[in-house]
Specification:
Elements (H helix, E strand, L loop, with lengths): L8 E3 L8 H7 L10 H17 L4 E6 L2 H12 L5 E6 L2 H12 L3 E6 L8 H10 L5 E7 L11 H10 L5 E5 L18 E5 L10 E6 L1 H7 L11 H5 L14 H17 L1 H23 L5 E2 L11 E5 L4 H13 L1 E3 L11 H4 L1 E5 L6 H17 L8 H12 L1
Helix pairs in contact: 1-9, 2-9, 3-4, 5-6, 10-13, 10-14, 11-13, 13-14
Length: 399
């Protein structure tokens, strides 16, 4: 007998759970793409997307994923040969740096490892050493989905300012937007990227680049601009097709409209508070389980943990054993490890990730926690008793 029948739950760090209202909004015939409802709907999304990002600047819409957004942002920010400083705190920082190098940038990496956030003092020193201001762009990741570290973006901005450096500041918020507090203008971010499939609760396929007027002016005339990635027309379109340099992603737009409405109806402060509280329920369970076994947070300091994803280690092989058992027997999929050894190696198989982003609530989190506790017991994985109770007590204290 299997207990996995019923709706499968992807507790992975994206694609996240898609709300039924979003699915229903997308379940419709193809619309008119020249006039009418879809045109007005798309125009109406722009101010709301700016509200979610915390900016009064510009936003460009793309039919792409996060990797495409790395390229979209870079081709608008730099020319070939420009120096780009990338603050790396995990797998996805290296990814953005690699795209920059392949586009012909002169890339310098400040690597802070896989278990720590960006050190603003080290960044400030690197920028002060650049007396000729050769560095054109500083890049950082708000939440690295692989390591689950959450960087202090405001402190990074302060380090750039303390160094008196004019570089454009770009941030990858793909894993954090709509989950963790983010204020683009207040924190001094010049360029920010995010995609549809995580905190924005819409299927993969759409991406967004928000940019300040400073970033726009600095990037004008660079030699990496291409017709498709150029953000100029997309940010100030006359016709619907100019948002996307062609046919719009019609049904994604209907879904995104519903998702954005749900976020704004709940209120950003409430969305952020919900994610923090539910993350802390997971943390309470994990801390309890870890007292009697090898389960550990990848990010030890709660101040630097994401509220959207938790990366955990469980000893060689046991991470994959737990993931496989939960999928086969209980209908739940946890996230694989990324950046912790080669896929299939004992080191990699000792890590796993829990996604807790977007359309989640207390009973969903408690269900995953109970399922994990069941898996530990079934697989004889040593763990401290009472993880579910610890999570319940945490949630009871927050209601």
């Amino acid at each position: 007998m299997s207990l996995a029948n019923g709706r499968h739950y992807l507790a992975i760090p994206g694609p996240s759970v898609i709300p039924d209202p979003v699915l229903q909004a997308m379940h419709r015939p193809a619309p008119n793409i020249y006039t009418g409802e879809l045109v007005e709907l798309t125009h109406g999304l722009i101010p709301d997307l700016k509200t979610i990002a915390g900016t009064s600047g510009h936003v460009a819409l793309y039919i792409t994923n996060g990797h495409g957004l790395w390229e979209a942002s870079l081709t608008n920010m730099i020319s070939r040969g420009d120096k780009v400083l990338v603050c790396v705190t995990g797998n996805f920082g290296h990814g953005w740096a690699d795209v920059a190098a392949r586009l012909g940038a002169n890339v310098e990496i400040l690597d802070f490892g896989k278990q720590a956030p960006v050190d603003p003092a080290r960044l400030e020193a690197a920028l002060k050493a650049d007396t000729a201001h050769e560095i054109k762009v500083v890049l950082a990741t708000h939440v690295d989905t692989a390591t689950s570290v959450r960087n202090d973006i405001a402190s990074i901005r302060k380090a750039i300012d303390a160094a008196g450096h004019p570089a454009v500041f770009g941030v990858d918020s793909i894993a954090s937007l709509g989950c963790d507090r983010f204020k683009m203008d207040a924190w001094g971010v010049d360029v920010m990227i995010a995609a549809s499939q995580k905190g924005l609760m819409t299927p993969p396929g759409m991406g967004f680049v928000w940019f300040s007027e400073k970033a726009r002016q600095e990037g004008m005339g660079n030699d990496l601009r291409t017709p498709y990635w150029d953000w100029e027309t997309r940010a100030k379109p006359v016709h619907l097709y100019e948002y996307f340099d062609g046919t719009p992603p019609t049904h994604h737009l209907y879904g995104l409209r519903q998702a954005v409405t749900m976020i704004l109806d709940e209120g950003l402060e409430n969305v952020w508070a919900r994610h923090e509280t539910l993350a802390r329920a997971y943390w309470a369970a994990i801390e309890t389980w870890g007292q009697g076994g090898e389960l550990r947070f990848n990010i030890a300091d709660p101040a630097y943990r994401s509220h959207a994803v938790s990366t955990l280690s469980l000893g060689a092989g046991d991470g994959t054993r737990l993931r496989s058992w939960l999928t086969e027997h209980l209908g739940i999929t946890l996230g694989i490890s990324l950046g912790f050894g080669d896929i299939g190696s004992p080191e990699a198989d000792g890590y796993f990730r829990i996604g807790h982003m977007g359309h989640i609530n207390a009973h969903m989190v408690l269900g995953i926690i109970g399922a994990m506790e069941t898996g530990f017991t079934a697989l004889d994985i040593p763990h401290g008793e009472g993880g579910s109770v610890a999570a319940a007590k945490l949630l009871a204290s927050r209601v």
